[in-house]
Each structure stands twice: as C-alpha cells, then as structure tokens.
Amino acid sequence: MKSKTTFTPSPIHIYILESQLEIYARHLLFLQLLFTSVNQIGLQEKCEHYLELFANLHINTHTEQYLKEAATQLIQYITNINGEFQFASNITIDTTLLKYKEKDFLEGIFQFWRVSPTKQPFPAELAWDGRVRQYL
User: Fold this and answer.
1) pLDDT tens sequence across 75-111
2) pTM of structure
C-alpha cells in the first residue's frame, strides 16, 4: 500500500543586494507583478505589463494605470512601520534592513512613477531622440 505524503512548502528567501535604489524599486515592482494573483490580473495581461515595464520608455495607458496603482501600494508597503509586507498569502517582504533615508528615497521613486508622463520633469523623449541621433 502506498503511503500518502503531504508536501509542505518551505519558505523561499530572496535577498536583493542592490546599491542603486532605482533598481531596487524596479525589483520590488516586478516581484509585486509576479506574485499578483491571476484572479486580479490575467496571465496575458501580466506578461504584457512585464514586457512593457521592462523594456519600454513609452508605455500604453493600461500599463501606466497599473504602474500608478502599484506605486501607490508600494508606497504604503515601504512606509509601513514594522518593515514587513505581504505580496501574497505566503510571500512576505522584509525591509527592516533598509535605512530610513533609503526608504524615503524609495518613496520618492514611487511618487515619481505616479506622475503623469506629460508632467514629469525628465524629458524622456528628448533624451531618447538625442541618443538615437548620435548613432545616425
């Protein structure tokens, strides 16, 4: 007779060692997108958001709306007083090793993501155009 064994998932520890907080914020955004339930965002939509956010300077309005909502959630998570937050029922992110200065900088990055592209102080189109013209 076969014995039934139960599988108990062990916790997965992911450590992000990054000196640039912009990249750290981007990793948090991608982790949030990755662990968002398929009931909230479909698999096709998650893939489209990932590809647009990973590689594109200009994103469509649907992805822009997702980015604004995700940035708002990440601001709430980072400014949480106990330093831990959950993306899913079994995924806990621990930010207790971050300094308050780093948390404030991350909050500024997330607030920058929430600003409409037409109102951003960084002229992305001009920078892209100038870079491309150098190669012509």
Assistant:
1) 998 988 887 777 776 778 888 888 999 999 999 999 9
2) 0.79
Nearest residue to 31 via CA among 107, 117, 94, 116 = 94
Place of tokens 């520890």: 13
- In the chain the first and final C-alpha atoms are separated, in Å, by 73
Alpha carbon distance 40, 52 (integer Å): 18
Those residues whose C-beta lies under 8 Å from the C-beta of residue 58, and which sit 6 or more positions away, are: 117, 124, 125
Q: Do 38 and 44 form a contact (C-beta atoms < 8 A)?
A: no
Question: What distance in Å separates the CA atoms of residue 37 and residue 57, rounded to the nearest whole number?
Answer: 26
The contacts of residue 114 (CB under 8 Å, 6+ apart) are 67, 68, 71, 72
Encoding tokens for residue 63? 């992805």
